[in-house]
Amino acid sequence: xxxxxxxxxxxxxxxxxxxxxxxxxxxxxxxxxxxxxxxxxxxxxxxxxxxxxxxxxxxxxxxxxxxxxxxxxxxxxxxxxxxxxxxxxxxxxxxxxxxxxxxxxxxxxxxxxxxxxxxxxxxxxxxxxxxxxxxxxxxxxxxxxxxxxxxxxxxxxxxxxxxxxxxxxxxxxxxxxxxxxxxxxxxxxxxxxxxxxxxxxxxxxxxxxxxxxxxxxxxxxxxxxxxxxxxxxxxxxxxxxxxxxxxxxxxxxxxxxxxxxxxxxxxxxxxxxxxxxxxxxxxxxxxxxxxxxxxxxxxxxxxxxxxxxxxxxxxxxxxxxxxxxxxxxxxxxxxxxxxxxxxxxxxxxxxxxxxxxxxxxxxxxxxxxxxxxxxxxxxxxxxxxxxxxxxxxxxxxxxxxxxxxxxxxxxxxxxxxxxxxxxxxxxxxxxxxxxxxxxxxxxxxxxxxxxxxxxxxxxxxxxxxxxxxxxxxxxxxxxxxxxxxxxxxxxxxxxxxxxxxxxxxxxxxxxxxxxxxxxxxxxxxxxxxxxxxxxxxxxxxxxxxxxxxxxxxxxxxxxxxxxxxxxxxxxxxxxxxxxxxxxxxxxxxxxxxxxxxxxxxxxxxxxxxxxxxxxxxxxxxxxxxxxxxxxxxxxxxxxxxxxxxxxxxxxxxxxxxxxxxxxxxxxxxxxxxxxxxxxxxxxxxxxxxxxxxxxxxxxxxxxxxxxxxxxxxxxxxxxxxxxxxxxxxxxxxxxxxxxxxxxxxxxxxxxxxxxxxxxxxxxxxxxxxxxxxxxxxxxxxxxxxxxxxxxxxxxxxxxxxxxxxxxxxxxxxxxxxxxxxxxxxxxxxxxxxxxxxxxxxxxxxxxxxxxxxxxxxxxxxxxxxxxxxxxxxxxxxxxxxxxxxxxxxxxxxxxxxxxxxxxxxxxxxxxxxxxxxxxxxxxxxxxxxxxxxxxxxxxxxxxxxxxxxxxxxxxxxxxxxxxxxxxxxxxxxxxxxxxxxxxxxxxxxxxxxxxxxxxxxxxxxxxxxxxxxxxxxxxxxxxxxxxxxxxxxxxxxxxxxxxxxxxxxxxxxxxxxxxxxxxxxxxxxxxxxxxxxxxxxxxxxxxx
Length: 1088
Description:
The protein is flat and about 175 Å long. The protein has six domains: 34-262, Rhodopsin 7-helix transmembrane proteins (Rhopdopsin 7-helix transmembrane proteins), CATH 1.20.1070; 288-382, CATH 3.30.450.20; 392-570, CATH 3.30.450.40; 583-687, CATH 3.30.450.20; 772-849 and 861-933, Heat Shock Protein 90; 950-1081, Rossmann fold (3-Layer(aba) Sandwich). It is built from 29 helices and 32 strands. The strands form eight sheets. A six-stranded antiparallel beta sheet has the order 10-9-8-13-12-11. Strands 4-3-7-6-5 form a five-stranded antiparallel beta sheet, covered by helices on one side. A five-stranded antiparallel beta sheet has the order 15-14-18-17-16, with helices on both faces. Mean pLDDT is 80; it is low at 1-5, 11-31, 893-899 and 1074-1088. 49% of the residues lie in helices and 18% in strands. β8 (437-444) and β9 (449-457) form a beta hairpin. It starts with a helix and ends in a 12-residue tail after the last strand. α1 packs parallel to α7 (204-223). It is α+β, with helices and mostly antiparallel strands and 1088 residues long.
């Protein structure tokens, strides 16, 4: 029986007591029920139990669509159960519950429960229609229901007088009581209206039970408005109707929340099973083999067609890897992996090795949403017949395509690719005609010999191209006669060869040839050779159609070979001309003056550094490559040649796209018409850059030679002047108390002399005649000294500054050269700002940035000191930046610079094992970065004139033609205890030594002297006394050096100017012992 019909039947049966009860109202003085209390208690207990069941069922059901509505109903019915229970135990006739049990007390609790139930039912109905934005927590709803219950129970039990009277004994119900009952009736009626108006929003089960339940509740409430005594029949009927209404509500929750889902689930399972059976029947009815496997390639599903294809029952297929049952051993794993990686379908053709059936397989990746696992659905389709039809059509198309490809390939191919084209044609022909070997023989020596020039062999077929070269045609007379007559030689089998073809048959057998066909190659009317095919594995007969096609191929090959031969001869002649131009660096050009077109030879493109395909030659484009400063001169020369018939012979510079400059010489002549109008101008361009470079190098070498001679002469005289200055200053310093102004002034004189000495060294170094003397030194003091020295020479509107960011600035370097580097860079920077002024800053830091790579040429893993000389000047244009370190390169005007400053700096930095880089932006300044390798240890100490110097009592012969030098050195050594004999003439000194060679312990002599020089005098002395220590001094001499001194046996070579500590240390080193004298004893000798 349907649920709705059952509910209506139950409603009808329960309606009978209503009509009976209504009839009883017409009976006067209805007696009270004698067992009312017992029946009332039983009905209430049962009602409370049903209300609790409603709470328990509704509160714990997880309704997905509208959980708030059900939680409201369930929570309210827990409060109803509690209030009905309080109503029960507060009823008259039962023991008092806290306060005296009265009908009024019980009625208050009754009304509170009815209002809660009616409100909850209405709220449930409305919430089914108006879904809240956010679901309310069921525990919050339960708390609200219990709070209402507690409040009403507390008032009803302890303070019933707060509520208007509900029942007056002997009179019956009060208007308040009746009004409250009608309020409850109205709430139930409103709920019925909502259910009826929005019945499409409620399930059939809810409507079938809740509508009768609401009618019963309305009837129950009507009875509670009519009874006169609390224990009469009308009152009891109201309780019974309420009980049945609660049962219907419970029934609705149970049906919709518990039983109905199971019914729907059973129905769904039944439909699934029915669908599965239908799907299986349909799946097995598909004629194409279909199966599914997982990512481990194990089959999880297949149809009967697949089982038939592999010849196995279903139970022996499921669970096995598909490559074990697929009709071929190697499965298409690659396509499966691609389909999985890309999430896309893939297709592949599968050709089983045994049955010859071709399958097309579609790979479809399927992802199960529930587990996230991937499976692959493979659909196989028999395409054997389609493939055979396609193969037949492909053969026809290949036949046509072969002819078209060969024709197009040979017609359009260049000479350089002729060999490749012929080899490609041989491979195509051998493959198409199923031959094992294809070849081309060319004749030579006026058709007296032939050579296997081109050959293609299938895999496993022996090649004979190396063995058959320059074979006489007379060796194979039968074959040669037919080819020379331009006949086709077709030998399907060797047995058909005539008796005179003995040599041919022997040769064919040697090459394992079973069948062959050869066609003559005729090009430009000349027989060039022949084209042939061999069958080695099995004999073959070529049809007339195939022979016709081979004849076409032979004609195409012959035309291509003839054209290639002609082109080769032309290219060889052109190459000879281009080679001659390349060797001479001469290119030719032709200018069509009227049409303004210009044609260049390849050598001109090389000279200008452009590619022919990237440059459109024209007169205007040519002028664009001429250096801007030379352009007016070129334009004037061209115009004079055109207008005045002047010879066009000019030298100028061109700037290549890579920034390089080339010197070129142009010579041309003009072709004119009969009226003298210029038509064409043809000429040559010769690259003379190397010649210009050699001329400049020779010129600069002569300049440097002159500078070197001048520097050497100045150095000799100047060093002789500085020596007495330095010696006298040091001796006076020893006698002057430290801390006095005189002592300070003398120190400044000494430093100035040392700077003068360093200046001479710089001049010598510039002329390649100086001496490189590296030593451990700190760079910071050198920078400060250089800036201090330069401050007086650089204008005051240029700011000088230095920043030393590290104390680790010890490098192995020549102090003089480092100072020169600082000064050269600073002076260059000052010259860039001489008009507007600016700032020059020198920073010194340790290069320790992580990931830093040293400049090219410096080894990795080393520690470097970084010195940056930066300025805010005009900057350096990017086009000349790569050339600034080139010798003699300068942007200054004539007479303003030699172009050697930065070149010298670059050479000095590299000499110290370092590198120099430059960064510049026009208008913003320039940064020169110098990197020098750091060293461990301590810097070379600076001489302290107050420290004691080593002295001695040895006898010294001092020889120098400069009286001032003798007057300085002799007293300085005498005050240290040495006994000296001085000579200004080398011949006199030699005579004195000859008189008594053992008289002197040491000889100190100048090199450059009148008469005989110092080295010659020392050689004579050493001949007389080989063990004699000799110290040779020189202001400068290009003819003496350390190696020559050692060869002569001289003990030491000392460069002028020198100080006391310099010469004394050498003396003690030569004599081999050291004795220190107290500074107090270093007084001027009486003889001086």
